[in-house]
Amino acid sequence: MKKHDRLPDFSKLCAPEQTPISFFLSQQIYFFFLGSIGGFLWEVAIFLYRDKTFANRGFLYGPWLPVYGIGAVLFYLLLGCRRKKIHPAGVFFLSAAIGTGLELLIGWFLDTFWNLRYWDYSGYPFHFHGYICLYAAVGFGIAGVLWICVLEAPLTRLWKRLTPKVRLGLNTLLLLLFAADCAAALIFPNHGADITFP
């Protein structure tokens, strides 16, 4: 046996989705961008309806709001695998709890360490320091039911229909664009609508 034959074969690391774990990771990246872009479109629609104007609510410049992407991944990881065992009402309440907890954590962190408020529910009933409110919690619950009980399965089937190389190419492109957007926003932050800066 030659000496180099004992070395590990790293070529598989560069190949698209050779294992179930690599597919799972590619799926979560896909879910992250679906949630991020979906959240961006949702908030744009709210502003179009309320103020009759286009507004980018995010810190980034691209058409994505990462907090929604994180929520989509968390909902899937915590509820997606159990959706057949949990009644939609259970999905609603668990999604409301997960989404509200995530919103509270991120809102408190941004306000405490960066003196930055991306949202303020002080004008809504049943709010907690403006970080969370009952209205938003109900919205998270409805979004969780739509995501876990309606959308996730067909979107996963659509993802599986693509070849591994296409999936790898799409994820790589999105990650590169997202990384460039994050770098630009750190230097020249986008002051989105209704965001309070110090």
Give structural attributes.
single chain; 198 residues; mainly alpha; two-stranded antiparallel sheet; transmembrane helix; membrane; CmpB_TMEM229; transmembrane
Head-to-tail CA distance between termini: 65 Å
Pick out the low-confidence regions.
10-14
Strand content: under 5%
Q: Based on Cα principal axes, name the global outline.
A: globular
* Nearest-integer average pLDDT: 86
Whole-number total of structural domains: 1
The SS-based structural class is mainly alpha
Rounded to an integer in angstroms, the radius of gyration calculated over CA atoms is: 20 Å
Number of strands: 2
What about the largest sheet? 2 strands, antiparallel
Q: Percent range for helical residues?
A: 55-70%
Strand order of the largest sheet: 1-2
- What is the number of helical segments per DSSP (H or I, 4+ residues)? 6
Order of helices and strands: HHHHEEHH
